[in-house]
Amino acid sequence: MRLELQYRLSQVHEREQKVRDELEDEVRLQLLEKEKELRKAREQAAEAECRHRGEIEQMKIGKQQDLEVIEEKIRQAMAKKTQIIESLVEESRLKEVQIEKLRAMMDKQRRELLAK
Known about the structure:
The protein is mainly alpha-helical. It has one helix at 2-115.
């Protein structure tokens, strides 16, 4: 009877060990699968971050180029306005000279008429 109990106890222990080993294997496989998923998620996150950085850099470059184009157009417009202003100032100066000549001529004619 004692041998039979030891035998049964041994069988129970073996089944228990077998179940424990199976559970450990299952947990180990699940852990490996989760680690694989985690690595994949990290790789995807790193790729997305890299891609987004590239997109942001491209956007910055594009915006910088847009600003440079706008600044150039502003410089051209300002140069044109400055040229127009200079032209108008010169025209005004010439008109002032004409006015002075006409005044001098009128003064001369008035004096001639009054002298007669």
